[in-house]
Amino acid sequence: MPKLIKNRAIVEDDFVLVTTIEEGADAPEGNVILPVQYYLDNRDALASRDNVAVWLESDQPAELLNDIHQEVAFIAVNFPKFADGRGYSYARLIRERMNYTGELRAIGDVLLDQLHFMARCGFDSFAVREDTDIEEALTGFEAFRYSYQAANDNPSPLFRKRLG
Known about the structure:
This is DUF934 domain-containing protein. This protein is an alpha/beta fold.
């Protein structure tokens, strides 16, 4: 079973990421992470399942999650490549504007160097790339001791601490 980092610990990932579903086909049984548009199109049939999560592609608007974020197991945001930073913005929108308190997972091209910044934006779960040493990836959270800017993990900027 694949592993992921959740709340800064390595755990088994018992959900399966579903990237495509043929038109008219039913969602797979079991714990699945479905494309958000598929979930919206089949919401009546899926809303009663407690083992369905959704994933958002980086070119989809986060507002697609407005009405469903409280009824899914968790939300995943895809990073198609490491240079695509839209997922960071989505994490802040989901946490701060939607007041989402559930699991927020980063999937796709997730690298050690990004974990600290992703956590600051609100991600608490990370499916790192298969070629990444997951034990070593844990050190990514400790890359920086202090952060100057306010973020989801610390709403007080560093300069306020200096002012007392």
